[in-house]
Write a structure and sequence with these properties.
This is SDR family oxidoreductase. The chain is an alpha/beta fold and 260 residues long. It contains 9 helices and 9 strands. 43% of the residues lie in helices and 14% in strands. The strands form 2 sheets. Strands 3-2-1-4-5-6-9 form a 7-stranded parallel beta sheet, sandwiched between helices. Strands 7-8 form a two-stranded parallel sheet. The radius of gyration is 17 Å and the shape is globular. The chain starts with a strand and ends in a 6-residue tail after the last helix. Bound molecules: nicotinamide-adenine-dinucleotide. Nicotinamide-adenine-dinucleotide binds next to helix 1 and helix 3. The site of nicotinamide-adenine-dinucleotide (NAD) has 27 residues, from helix 1 and helix 3.
Length: 260
Amino acid sequence: MSRNIVVTGAASGIGKATAELLASRGDTVITVDLRDADITADLTDDAAIAQVVEQITERTGGTLDGLVANAGVSANNELSLLVNYFGTVALIEGLRPLLAKSEAPRISVTSSAATLQGNDPELVDLLLAGDRDAAVERGKALAAQSQAGYANYSSSKRAISRWVRRVAPTADYAGAGIGINAVGPGQVRTAMTAELLSTEEGRKMVEAAMPSPYGGPAEAVDIAEVHAFLVSPGNARMTGQVVFVDSGFDAVSRGDDIWS
Ligand SMILES: NC(=O)c1ccc[n+]([C@@H]2O[C@H](COP(=O)([O-])OP(=O)(O)OC[C@H]3O[C@@H](n4cnc5c(N)ncnc54)[C@H](O)[C@@H]3O)[C@@H](O)[C@H]2O)c1
């Protein structure tokens, strides 16, 4: 049976590969992006998000089966907070009533293996508290110290991974039959990383920060395969998980005993 699935950030990279894979498997895919999409919108803008929800309601008749919340940026400033955390949460929450009407509703979020890297705990707390103004202020202050700028990205991903785990077992999600998980990619060859991975120096730097012993950097379709499973009805009982698709980085960085 064809399912209606929304994919954000679908004009490029992981989102594009996911939209193509789902369509090839017979799903009806609605793409959302800043450009080259069924619905063009800036997901940092709450008014634009409300319009996206309206348009998806019209296109689907009010029932949505899946959402791949993937749009993101790797800016060393507060833009990472606005797209990767606030925009992602706002769209998921906006579409939740449509998902609750499906017989097998599923959400998959693109987080990052950066969840495991150094972050700014104060910023993560502000994000999880939904304090947009204070989070942006903190993000700007970190961006002003060049080394700490990356914490905008890693903190946005730590916060979205924690948010997914926080909401997954609640009445709004588990209670409504909505499975919600995140994928944590490691190094992936997309427009986001093209410049960095194009030089020997860049590749060495990324490999030192995020080792990839299992095959090196992934292709976008490697991540798409996991999203496609997570938003399928076949994913019957997995919820609240952050699935690292990271060429082995999690195992290298956290080791074998992560359950204590
Ligand atoms: N490439 C990697 O190595 C890597 C690793 C871990 C996680 N990720 C995550 O994967 C996701 C996809 O990234 P990608 O690597 O495919 O990069 P990409 O740059 O190829 O694609 C990102 C897409 O998101 C869209 N987008 C950005 N800001 C937006 C906004 N405000 N509103 C609507 N759309 C917006 C862009 O237009 C683009 O099409 C991101 O969340 C990123 O953080 C990527």
